[in-house]
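Hi everyone,

Forwarding the result from last night's run.
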Amino acid sequence: MWVLEHPSALLLLLLIPPAVYLRHFWPERGGRVLFPFAVYNGSGFRPRQWRVQLLHNLAVAAFWAGLVALILALAGPAEVSRQPVHLSRGIDIMIVLDESPTMAAQDFQPENRFESAKNVIRSFVQRRENDPIGLVTFAKEAALRVPPTTDHEHLLDALAKTRIMELGDGTAIGLGIAVGALHLNAGEAGERVMILLTDGKNNAGEISPEAAAAIAADLGIRVYTIGVGREGEAPIEFVDPETGTQYRGTVVEAFDEEQLRRLADMTGGSYFHASSSAALESVLQSIDTIETVERRTRVEVQTEPLHRQVAGFAVLLLLIEFIIRTLVLKEIL
């Protein structure tokens, strides 16, 4: 928002119209030689140098615009911005996302499970502006994509770049939980939460899901588990990122609902089943409602003066007027 720190200076603009009249329209302003043509029967003299007249008009416009800009600079223009400053730290959240090939199942039309999950996570992150949020993805291996951070733009950029099967073709749920817990434990927030999204059964990794959940529980981390996908067969289509080979087929394997429920119970979290994009969105909204903390903020007002820029523009306009009149039109000032 723009403001004027000295708005009374704008009263000087009231002097501009009479000054323009006195300078250009007042009959007795001088600078013009009156010559009677009473004895001359021909038509009056009209110069045909339209380019000269155009340059003259341009110089006049630049002069008066420069004066107006100088008055605006005297009024003290400034840009005011209001930034919320969070006085209390939010909840440290780690999202653990399955990127195994089965997440390419196309039962979450118009997109597959993986892309639908990414879209829902994006909306969830945008609602938690004060919370440090991180991202871990897993398949046969698990990897930290982004540690918990309030730079959500960086987080969402990393989320958008994730692809199915970048970490192999297995489902290492325990490894994903362990990596997430390790990096959540490095945070400073009093409350730490993990959100696990998967559509398969644990079949890879050096650590079992129960052992990883026990570690998370010891660290005071609540784990919310979300089973993604519908029952029965679902068409699947994906591209192997290493070979570029495209695969098509059907997927039947489902997640282990009892195990996901047990992992959540071990850590004080909750289990959810999401069979559609709308259901997944509803689940994340429920977690968003459950995991809230008292948020204290203040609004910090920042003012950036702009009078120098406006004054510089005014000087530029006056310089243009001076150059046209002295160097181009060769006037004697």
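The chain has two domains: 2-30+47-81+301-328, 88-290.

Cheers,
N.
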